[in-house]
Design goal:
Blueprint lengths: L2 E8 L8 E8 L5 H11 L3 E8 L2 E7 L4 E2 L3 H13 L9 E5 L2 E9 L13 E8 L4 E2 L6 H5 L5 E4 L4 E4 L3 H6 L4 H4 L7 E6 L7 E7 L4 E4 L3 H15 L3 E6 L5 E9 L6 E17 L1
Parallel strand pairs: 2-3, 4-6, 11-12, 13-15
Antiparallel strand pairs: 1-2, 1-17, 3-4, 4-5, 6-7, 7-8, 8-17, 9-10, 10-11, 12-13, 13-14, 15-16, 16-17
Pfam family, one: PhzC-PhzF
Organism: Methanogenium organophilum
Family: Belongs to the PhzF family.
């Protein structure tokens, strides 16, 4: 048996919303080619592969086309699965050993009093990720035309470009030209704006055709950039965030000072629900 496989909708409390991720618990003997083939077969934005180590879980993430170095929603899904399957205790600190360093998570089942408003098997997950600062830069030629919305601010992180436009309506109305975006240098483009009141503080979308994801439903790693960016603009440390894809998803983003020597961190908190599980031949 190659491993157990799960599909989990992350950053939502109900099935068929949020961002679907594959999670595969393996015996640690799988090749890179096999993991890439599985991720391509499942055709989800990311699939996380887990193998138990002495000091935690090795985690690797693959899109249908490439391996990536950081993925929030698939890590959220992985923590959810490990607690649901009894591999880790609810509330325990789960250690993930990744190519972006040591990541940690906690996962809790939903409270009994919330069961009627949430799907069976849902739970709340908090991830502690490194903060990814973005530096202001000149707006690249053709970017505004590629996104189809005005650019009010432009910043560069080590993974992605961040573009702020004129509020939630502009973010939601954007009709990006994927053919233009795919030839641009970054992994992806984060489009963001301030929410127009209500339950959310910030709105975003994320476009990454270069790695096979034209528009990602909900992107945890993008919020590692969004948190520090909006903290700089507003002076606040905590935000209710909504990613305005077709499926939609929500999470709480909190920027904190990490332990000595670790630098700033971002805590991403959201829900997840398992929609499918089985075994890989």
């Amino acid at each position: 048996m190659a491993g157990r496989y799960f599909i989990v909708d992350a950053y939502t409390s109900r099935p068929f919303a949020g961002n679907p991720a594959g999670v595969c618990i393996t015996n640690g003997q799988m090749t890179d080619r096999w993991m890439q083939d599985v991720a391509s077969e499942m055709n989800l934005s990311e699939t996380a592969f887990l193998s138990r180590q002495k000091n935690g879980w090795e985690i690797r993430w693959f899109t249908p086309e490439v391996e990536v170095t950081l993925c929030g929603h698939a890590t959220c899904a992985a923590a959810h699965v490990l607690v649901q399957e009894g591999e880790e205790e609810a509330g325990a600190n789960i250690r993930f050993i990744s190519r972006s360093g040591l990541l940690s998570a906690t996962a809790e089942p939903c409270n009994p009093g919330e069961a009627e408003t949430r799907s069976a098997g849902s739970g709340t997950i908090s991830l502690t990720f490194p903060a990814l600062p973005a530096t202001p830069a000149p707006v690249p030629e053709g970017l505004e035309a590629a996104l189809g919305v005005p650019v009010e601010d432009f910043c560069v992180s080590h993974l992605d470009w961040l573009v702020r436009t004129g509020g939630a309506m502009m973010v939601e109305a954007a009709m990006p030209d994927m053919a233009a975006i795919v030839v641009m240098p970054p992994r992806g483009i984060i489009l963001t704006g301030a929410a127009d009141g209500g339950r959310y503080d910030i709105i975003s979308r994320f476009f990454a055709p270069k790695i096979g994801i034209p528009e990602d439903p909900v992107t945890g790693s993008a919020h590692c950039v969004l948190g520090p960016y909006w903290q700089r603009l507003t002076g606040r440390n905590r935000f209710n965030a909504f990613q305005a894809s077709r499926r939609g998803g929500e999470l709480v983003v909190e920027v904190t000072e990490g332990a000595e020597g670790t630098g700033r961190q971002v805590i991403l908190t959201g829900e997840a629900v398992t929609v499918m599980k089985g075994t890989l031949a």
